[in-house]
Amino acid sequence: MPIIVNGREAARAALGAASAPVSLLTPPYAACHAGVQYYRALLDELTRDFAHTAFTFTLCCGDDPAIAHDALRLGFLRIICACEAALFTELHALATAMGAVVMPRYPL
Q: Between 20 and 30 A from 96 (CA), which of 39, 56, 86, 88?
């Protein structure tokens, strides 16, 4: 079950308490509100500070394929984008080529 984290403190607390691999998930539309760069900086910090903790980080890009594309460009490996089918197919192909995963809907 993923842990929803909306910022630095929640993410650090989740990883600090981890005794097994952790799946972090941003709230719905998080990248649309705070921006992909905010979450890129957060993920970089977590990766550095919790280098010995196994975790995944999934960024929700809402229904905006441009934001999802930006997330892929900035190196996110797990994103959510609930965009229309034709655009999702293109994002999926791009993500697969980059070794990333794009999901069509929020999991909860």
A: 39
